[in-house]
Amino acid sequence: MDLLAHLEAYVATADEASFSRAADRLGIAQPLLSRRIKTLEGHFGGLLFDRSRRQVTTTELGVLLLPHARDVLDRAQRLRQAARSARHARVRAVGVPADCAPAALARALRAGTERGITLGMRELPPAERESGLSDGSLAYALLRVAPERAAFRVPLGLASAQADAREAPRALHLEELRPRRRRTGGPPMHPPLPLLVLAEDQVPCFEDRFARAVARAGLSEGRIAPAGPAADALTETLAGRALLLCTESYARRYDARWAPLGDAALHRGYDVSAPPGSRGAPDVPEWLTRLLGTAVGAAGHGDTGGLRAVGDAPARLAARG
What we know:
Layout: H1 3-16, H2 19-26, H3 30-44, E1 49-50, E2 57-58, H4 60-88, E3 91-96, H5 102-114, E4 118-123, H6 126-135, E5 140-145, E6 152-154, E7 157-160, E8 195-197, H7 204-216, E9 224-226, H8 230-238, E10 243-246, H9 248-253, E11 257-260, E12 268-273, H10 286-296, E13 299-301, E14 306-308, E15 314-315
Parallel strand pairs: 3-4, 3-5, 8-9, 8-10
Antiparallel strand pairs: 1-2, 5-12, 6-12, 7-10, 7-11, 13-14, 14-15
Helix pairs in contact: 1-2, 1-3, 1-4, 2-3, 5-10
C-alpha cells in the first residue's frame, strides 16, 4: 500500500466532505479514491467516513486520526523539499590547475552562487582532472589540449630572478638560451641554468613539442628538468639557480621576471569540459568557461566575454566534450 497516497485521499475527503470533489482535487478518478479509502479503513480496522447520509461525514475514528494523517503528509512534504534543496545545493567540483589566480576563482564561485549553483574548486594535476571527469568526481574541469584545437590558449614563458618591474617583457626564443662561450674559446662563461617544467606542463601534448623545440634551438636535452613541488621550483628560480616555465600571472604573483616564449606552438591549450552525457556534448555554462579562462591566464577582451591568449587572435568559446 502506498501509505502517502492513501492518506492524501483520506485528508482530501475529510476536507471536501465529498468523494467526487476530493477526487477532483487530487486529479484521480472517484472509484480509485473510494478504493484507497476502503483500503485505509481496512488497515486501521474501522470506518473513517459515514456514507449513510447524503453528505459524507467523518466518523469519530476519522476525526481522531485526521491530525496524525496531516502531520505525516506535512513531514513527507518537508522531506521532499529538503531533498530538492540538497540536490540543488550539491557542490559541483571543478578541477583546475594549481597556478590559477585565486581572485578569478573566487569570482567563479560567486557567479555560481548567483545562479543557484554551488561550485567547489579542486587543484589537481592534468591527469587527475581528466580521470575526475571519467569517474564522475568532477562536474567540470579545465583539460589540457593542443593549443591549435583549444577553446582558449595561455602563453608560456620563462621566469627568472626578480628584475625591475618597469621592464616590459619581450618575446624570448629558446636559441637565446644557448651558453655563451668565451671569446678565446673554451668552456662557457657561466653554467647554463636548468629549465624547470611544472606538473601542469608534464603532459604528452606539450612535452613532446617542447623537447623538439629545445632540440631545434641547440639546447641540451639534459637542461629540461621536471619541477618538484611548485614552492621549491620558485625558490630555485628566485635564487637565480633555475628558469621556470610558467604563465605570466604566476611569475608576477611572486615578483619574478618573466619573458614570453616566442613560439606560439608552446602555448598552453585548455578546454572546459563536463562528463559526457547520454545526449551528446556535455553542458558547460558559457559564463563558467569565461571565468575559468580568466583564472588560468587567458585575457578577456571587449564586451562579448570572449577569451584570447595575450597577443593572439580571439579564441573559440565553445566548450569541447
